[in-house]
Amino acid sequence: MTVESQKETLGFQTEVKQLLNLMIHSLYSNKEIFLRELISNASDAEDKLRFAALKDDSLFENDPELKIRLDYDAEKNTVTLSDNGIGMTRDDVVQNLGTIARSGTAEFLQQLSGDEKKDSKLIGQFGVGFYSSFIVADAVEVFTRRAGAPVEEGVHWESKGDGEFTIENVDLNERGTKIVLHLKDDAKEFADGFRLRNLVKKYSDHISFPVVMKSESEEEGEKGKYETVNDATALWTLSRSEIKDEEYKEFYKHISHDFEDPLTWSHNKVEGKLDYTSLLYIPGRAPFDLYNREAPRGLKLYVQRVFIMDDAEQFLPLYLRFTKGVIDSNDLSLNVSREILQNDSTVDSIRTAVTKRVLDMLSKLAKKEPEQYQQFWNEFGTVLKEGPAEDFSNREKIGALLRFASTHTGEDTQNVSLDEYIARMKEGQSKIYYITADNFMAAKSSPHLEVFRKKGVEVLILSDRIDEWMMGYLNEYDGKQFQDVARGELDLGDVETEEDKKHQEEATKEHKDLLERIKTALTDRVQDVRVTNRLTDSPACLVVGDFDMGAQMKKIMEAAGQKVPDSKPIFEINVEHPLVQRLEREQGEDRFQELSAVLLDQATLASGEQLQDPGAYVSRLNRLLLELAN
């Protein structure tokens, strides 16, 4: 097959077309980031070659000096970035430059609003990499050859960012990748040596490979010689006193492809039993695929400053998957693999230490920068709620970081900590009370809260889907037990007076016949009927048995296709309510059953659950209304 016959014109994936359109129209205010993204990708390619060459040094092809070269041509209006890294095959090029191989892309693009400021922030969650070229270029060419591949397997890719690209095989003597940007008329400023040098210093000084450019010095013998324009020192290997905040922030953007600054970071060198350096960041914004537990995640792993892998997930538990950063260990071997990492005691020790460090970073942020912590919680709180189940040993630390909505504020913002709740507890109160529901309004207006309002006791309002599952693992905090206000017998401790308790006992004796009649009438739908100490204004409510599954958990299990165990609720009635008193006077058994069923259906709706037979409820209610009307 001739080279010419291998030339193809292919279309971009639909999502790429949309993204390119967005890149070109939404990010014009921050054009210069294209260089940071391209140098970042080139640095990754150099890293990957250095790692691959540990097993096969012939991949260096007699050129072991890894570097990134930056050239420009003011007359032709081009900028060219070359690396002698791992390079790509034809299939790699089609896969990497023609598609976005990340799950959730379409959903991400549906979030775009057309508001350029908002959308440019969304792009930051996505990581734009190579596609940022089209912010400044109306045509982009890529010449690349995989290290170790024959000269004739070079690839030439070209596109104008208009929905199509061409790809053909060419002879390339040098391995690696060369990207040629044909600049737009309004981006001519970048075909300038001084401008490019400034951008390299600003965004890519910390890249651990030299970025070289031709010298513009007029001195004899200097002009035209390539010279290094960045520091080319791995940032994490420097001491903290040598690094400015701006450098930390730019390094974060390099490893995360985020456009925004991180909320906080921690740079730490450990020596002794373990020997490693960690540089960890907490992002300010959640990536679009945060809730996809299968999405790539983890830290960049280096061993003795040699890059080993992206997304080394073994160093952090899943509930801290939002953390970005670098681990550089001197204790692991250079031929380490993902399989070896899973069974390595050194990795376990580093993981334990790094997990504590991330939790300490968050604790510090919560104490010193509560507004920034609230921003973190709004973005990542639901993920952190996975912690109590996954990380039993750090349960108390995670508990201190949790935030809840509460009856104290009455707002749906989750901004109340458990420490604040405990500080406000009533005299005689020994438990932390909470209620779970499908949404905030259903929980806030639940009849189960009536006695708490009357007594002035604060209740935490939990309405995220994960909450009931989380509370199954979070049994206590700071020595205080948690109690679901809609589960089992309600124990108000010393907040409830002896008079209250006595009154409930007497009411149970006095209305024993009524309780038996209701239980017989509703025998298929309830496990027990009893006098309530929860209600002050409502006639009745439903209570979950101590060991039964709550409504939220049932819905999660059903959605996952799991079989849900059968369980009936406990029906509690308020014997002082006029409707219950009217029911007690009813002599006709059929009518008694009708009224009992209406009360039960109303209690079901008030708890935020759906009726199994809404039609029967409507029919009963209509019959009662007609009787009243007549």
Describe the structure.
This protein has 630 residues and is α+β, with helices and mostly antiparallel strands. Helices cover 37% and strands 18% of the residues. It has a 9-stranded mixed β-sheet with strand order 1-6-5-4-7-3-2-8-9, with helices on one face. It has a 5-stranded mixed β-sheet with strand order 10-11-14-12-13, with helices on both faces. Strand 5 and strand 6 form a beta hairpin. The protein starts with 7 loop residues before the first strand and ends with a helix. 38% of the residues are buried.
Would you kindly provide a brief summary of this structure?
The chain has 630 residues and is α+β, with helices and mostly antiparallel strands.
Name the poorly predicted regions.
1-5, 101-105, 120-127
Fraction of residues in helices? 25-40%
Strand content: 15-25%
Structural class comes to: alpha+beta
Give Rg in angstroms. Answer: 32 Å
Biggest sheet, strands in spatial order? 1-6-5-4-7-3-2-8-9
Shape: elongated
The main sheet comes to: 9 strands, mixed
How far apart are the first and last residues' alpha carbons, in Å? 92 Å
The protein's oligomeric status is single chain
- Count the DSSP helices: 22
Task: Give the tags.
630 residues, alpha+beta, 22 strands, elongated, disordered N terminus
Topology, element by element:
Layout: E1 8-11, H1 14-26, H2 33-52, E2 68-73, E3 78-83, H3 90-98, H4 105-110, H5 116-126, E4 137-145, E5 154-159, E6 164-170, E7 176-183, H6 193-204, E8 211-214, E9 226-228, H7 245-256, E10 264-270, E11 276-282, E12 299-303, E13 306-312, E14 324-329, H8 338-342, H9 345-368, H10 370-384, H11 387-390, H12 395-401, E15 405-406, H13 418-423, E16 431-436, H14 440-444, H15 450-455, E17 460-462, H16 467-471, E18 476-477, E19 480-484, H17 498-510, H18 512-521, E20 528-531, E21 540-543, H19 551-559, E22 570-573, H20 578-585, H21 589-606, H22 614-629
Helix pairs in contact: 1-5, 2-6, 9-10, 9-12
